[in-house]
Known about the structure:
Strand order of the largest sheet: 5-4-1-2-3-6
Order of helices and strands: EEHHHEHHEHHEHHE
Shape: globular
Strand content: 15-25%
Number of helices: 9
Mean pLDDT: 90
Structural class: alpha/beta
Radius of gyration: 18 Å
Distance between the termini: 37 Å
Amino acid sequence: MGFSDYIIYLDESGSPSIEADKGDFPVFVLACVCISKEHYADVMVPRLQALKFKYFGHDQVVFHERDIRRQSGDFVVLRGDRDLRESFLVEVTELVASFDFDLAATVIDKSKLAERYPNPISPYELSLQLTMEHLALTLREHNQLGKVVHVIAESRGKSEDDQLELVFRRIADGQPPLPSNQRRLITQFDWRIRFCDKKSNSSGLQLADLIARPVGLKHLRPDQPNRSYDVIQRKVKWWVKHFP
């Protein structure tokens, strides 16, 4: 069993807690970017680094959607210069559009989930289950059956990482409540999850981070202009599940 030709980067937006963020962002979004390692190494990483050099003079900037939106941290340089800010945002959008990747994302409407189920499953566990089902289909299309598939997730702390890894392993091993046909497909891959700190400056995690919140905003405010989501929607291979 060899390594897959593809790697997956996972990030979320919103809190997985049912009670959290009821007003501002009452959904939980899990976004998984599946990208070929060749494209990642030869195209994505160099282009992202080049953009950082152009606007910041170094490559230690971590592209974080919240910091960009709030113009905080390294992105404080965008304040007070509307032309610079617009130029940067346009180039980031064009950069994402230039990458060749598959997207699997799940949006959990937490209030509706709680209304429908007296004891709802964790939004994180539910979204991971739905997303991994689609990732398995995608990897099968790429002829990756039987291979080792690495999933890279941003570390959220030892306790949270341990909980996520437990859920991940249960789904990867095909344990119930997955339907039998889904269990059969998911278990045909050797899934391995790795956690890394945001400061690792992973290009893949930054791409997933830039995608997650716009997907959630599209669900909450479908008629509001959403430049980032429009780019995602134009991708040939993308999948977004809204639940319930």
